[in-house]
């Protein structure tokens, strides 16, 4: 068992490096891991092990970057770190203040001759920061424009609302099924269905999160499907009651 664990851990590391160099999409990398691990639960244990033994240095001297580093998994921290690197290409200046909010203009250099302008608002009391690029609202990551404003204001830590629990390396994964030897035969079909659903939902969420419109479509269809399944479940329970009568 220990030998298999070591071999799988090495496979995870090699696959991440190889796929990254080849430019292979994360969803394909994830699929390779699942095939090797045999299930999503085993794969999650491997990712946790990689997180524990891997060290990713901070890209800047920012105390906020260190704040995310200590909390987030390495995989998610890489996404956050990309925004801190992007902050280096931003220039911030204050435009005006009103009702406790200060508005800033952030100019981001995206190429030698291309500069994009963004508007960011910041409330020093609540520590709320919002950019009209809406990266945090769509992906849960503070954008480089917001980080530039926080740096401009010499803020050394972000409000708790910007550190999302679902990406913390310190919490136990809630969707992991724990089986005992007594109920394993009964739970095995359910666990297999669960693993398949997790894999499919991972790909759907990755695709849908790229667009606000796609997200709205998914929410709408999800509500329809939930209503249909609840109706089916209600009819099934009714049939069982009639059978027992």
UniProtKB/TrEMBL annotation:
Q: Which GO terms describe its biological process?
A: regulation of DNA-templated transcription
Quote a single Gene Ontology cellular component term.
nucleus
The family database entries (PANTHER family) matched by this protein are listed as: PROTEIN FAR1-RELATED SEQUENCE, PROTEIN FAR1-RELATED SEQUENCE 10-RELATED
Function summary: Putative transcription activator involved in regulating light control of development.
Q: Which Gene Ontology terms cover its molecular function?
A: zinc ion binding
Q: What is this protein called in UniProt?
A: Protein FAR1-RELATED SEQUENCE
Cellular location of this protein? Nucleus
Q: What is its main location?
A: nucleus
The UniProt entry's sequence similarity note says:
Belongs to the FHY3/FAR1 family.
Q: Keyword check for Nucleus, yes or no.
A: yes
Q: Domain SWIM-type: where?
A: 118-154
UniProt keywords, alphabetically:
Metal-binding, Nucleus, Zinc, Zinc-finger
Q: Which residues form a coiled coil?
A: none
């Amino acid at each position: 068992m220990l030998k298999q664990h070591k071999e799988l851990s090495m496979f995870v590391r090699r696959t991440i490096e190889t796929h990254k160099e080849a430019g292979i999409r994360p969803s394909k990398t994830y699929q390779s891991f699942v095939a090797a691990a045999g299930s999503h639960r085993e794969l999650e244990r491997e990712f946790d092990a990689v997180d524990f033994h891997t060290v990713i240095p901070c890209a800047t001297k920012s105390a906020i970057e260190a704040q995310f580093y200590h909390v987030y998994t390495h995989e998610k921290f890489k996404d956050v770190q990309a925004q801190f690197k992007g902050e280096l290409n931003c220039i911030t200046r204050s435009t005006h203040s009103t009702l406790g909010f200060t508005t800033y203009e952030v100019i981001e250099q995206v190429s030698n001759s291309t500069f994009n302008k963004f508007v960011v608002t910041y409330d020093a009391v609540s520590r709320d920061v919002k950019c009209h690029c809406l990266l945090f609202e769509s992906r849960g990551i503070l954008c480089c424009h917001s980080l530039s404003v926080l740096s401009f204001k010499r803020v050394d830590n972000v409000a708790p609302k910007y550190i999302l629990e679902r990406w913390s390396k310190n919490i136990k994964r809630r969707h992991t099924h724990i089986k005992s030897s007594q109920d394993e035969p009964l739970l095995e079909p359910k666990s297999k269905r669960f693993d398949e659903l997790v894999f499919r939902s991972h790909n759907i969420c990755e695709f849908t999160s790229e667009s606000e419109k796609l997200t709205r479509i998914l929410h709408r269809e999800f509500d329809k499907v939930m209503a249909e399944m609840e109706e089916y479940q209600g009819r099934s329970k009714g049939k069982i009651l009639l059978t027992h009568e």
